[in-house]
Design brief:
This protein is an alpha/beta fold and 327 residues long. It contains 10 helices and 14 strands. The protein binds iron/sulfur cluster (SF4) (2 copies).
Length: 327
């Protein structure tokens, strides 16, 4: 698979990366061996970029996949916490659990505002120190927010931007707009600005959490046509999904290809839900309820998988996943 330079980092990454969140306990909950086999399958297909996070609890899959092999993937992890000590602990945990001396990329996970960048100064300082000690190679920021993505171009310490981008703008936020909603156009401009400033950019949610998978080629044509993006991170759950992206990227996919999404189910990530109630009001089937923690959940007995709820979620917490076993 073609490898692309990731900004000024010196890294060369495959055009598609593997987001390991999908196989973890909050989504598919794949058995360890099955998840590890899927990761090795991806590496055999030429994928060399892997995204994980302290919060995902998926280090074990990568470790198992790599144990006793000669694979040399680029691993990116991240931490939601804000203090120096918490970030240092997260980096040490990643090194220990992944059984690696050096983590290639470590990020401030899910930065939600320019103000929060300052609030997490301790965590950033820990990343800078960890880089100086050789524990990590490069520092990045992941975000769903256009205003945050725009800011990154001017931040010397930040080498990599990991923004949310898709052709329908699902989940894109912007603190500068009165309703907090951002657009694909604005995020695309922020990506271009960051890339021109020498930042490496890989994106997430090309399929809007599975809600755009039915328009497979349109979704990928959009993100891969954007200036400044080196790679897109995709959460694979099955070998067939890896085969699909490989055939898309090598140009052998049929022009009218549409994946089978008949077994997909709507799922609300409890870690991302903000309890705003918008999905509850939008669901025509009354299939979403608020649980004892004040967060939204889906009653699958009556959900019609119409997908109407996902676009109203400001937190991009509503995703569509395939509950079938890996194949
Ligand atoms: S997919 Fe449709 S039926 Fe299911 S929870 Fe969302 S809006 Fe309701
Ligand atoms: S719209 Fe999103 S954030 Fe709001 S309650 Fe539903 S899932 Fe949670």
């Amino acid at each position: 698979m073609e490898k692309i330079r990731l900004g000024k980092t010196g890294l060369k990454v495959s055009k598609v990366g593997f987001g390991v969140l999908t196989m973890g306990a909050t989504q598919l909950n794949l058995p360890l061996d099955e998840g590890a086999e899927l990761i090795r399958y991806a590496m055999d297909k030429g994928i060399n970029l892997f995204d994980t996070a302290q919060y995902y609890k998926t280090y074990k899959y990568l470790r198992k996949a790599l144990d006793g092999t000669n694979y040399e993937p680029i691993i990116s992890s991240k931490c939601l916490k804000s203090s120096y000590e918490q970030m240092t602990e997260a980096i040490e945990e990643a090194r220990r659990e992944l059984n690696r001396d050096v983590i290639d990329i470590f990020m401030l996970h899910e930065l939600i505002s320019v103000k929060e960048y300052n609030f997490r100064a301790g965590a950033l300082e820990a990343l800078v120190d960890a880089k100086a000690k050789g524990w990590i190679r490069h520092i990045g920021v992941s975000t769903h927010y256009v205003d945050v993505a725009e800011m990154i171009a001017d931040k010397i310490e930040i080498e990599i931007l990991f923004p949310l981008i898709n052709y329908k703008g699902l989940g894109i936020r912007d603190n500068r707009n009165f309703d907090g909603v951002g657009t694909s156009e604005a995020m695309a401009a922020a990506i271009k600005k960051a890339a021109l400033a020498g930042k490496g950019v890989f994106g997430m949610k090309a399929f809007g959490g599975g809600n755009l998978t039915g328009t497979y080629r349109t979704a990928l044509d959009y993100v891969y046509g954007l200036p400044g993006i080196s790679a897109m991170m995709i959460g694979f759950g099955k070998k067939r999904e890896i085969d699909d992206i490989v055939s898309y990227l090598d140009g052998t996919m049929l022009r009218d290809y549409t994946p089978d999404i008949s077994k997909k189910r709507i799922f609300i990530d409890q870690g991302d839900c903000e309890g705003c109630n918008a999905c509850v009001q939008r669901c025509p089937s009354k299939a979403i309820f608020v649980n004892e923690n004040g967060l939204a959940e889906v009653n699958h007995d009556i959900c019609l998988t119409c997908g109407y709820c996902a676009p109203v979620c400001p937190a991009r917490a509503i995703i569509m996943i395939d509950k079938r076993k890996s194949e």
